[in-house]
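quick one if you have a minute, typing this from the bus. below you get a single protein, a line of residues and a line of whole numbers that encode the local backbone shape. could you go over both lines and see whether the tokens make sense for that sequence. anything you notice is useful, everything is just below.
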Amino acid sequence: MKLTAQEVLRQLLYAMLLVGMVAGAWYFVFRPRDLAEVKMRAQIEAKQRQLQKLNRATASIGDLKEEIAELSKAIEFFESKLPTEKEIDKVLEEVWRLAEANNLTTKSICTMAKRSRSVFVQAASPHAEQPIKMQFEGDFQGFYRFLLALENQPRIMRICQLTLGERKGQQGSVTADLEISIFFEAQDAKTCSRKT
């Protein structure tokens, strides 16, 4: 079967039309969709990266909230151990009783000028440090028990200076000069009690 030139031309036109439709579909339909899809994927990836950053930041905020809550509890605990300035005399009385309970003779207990700023207390803090000088005489074992009892007190105290000496003529008996600091919630007084 021989095809005429006209039929060949018609088939060629038909083939070109089919190829043109495929090319047109690709150019006008599929190519824009592919470009839109690539653009949309890039936006999705960017949003996922932002979401991951946000999730990491949110996770660290949760950790910070827990840490702040724990630190707040610790602050409350330590503040509960701080007497107010008005209660310093009660603390002095407790120290006096501890000395007597351990068979120590209290020669003197004096509060010194309070420190509103020290290594442990900063200037803007609502807390202060009250140094107290004490002099005791008595048995060394009693003094040792006194120090242990002082350490177990619910108040926050620290021993700044301690000087021990032997009492003349009495073996095993000591004299002790002691400076302790009591931490408290601030307000200025100097008291001194002497017992002879």
In short: Strands lie at 104-111, 127-139, 157-166, 173-185, 192-194. The first strand starts at residue 104 and ends at 111. Helices lie at 5-80, 88-101, 140-151.
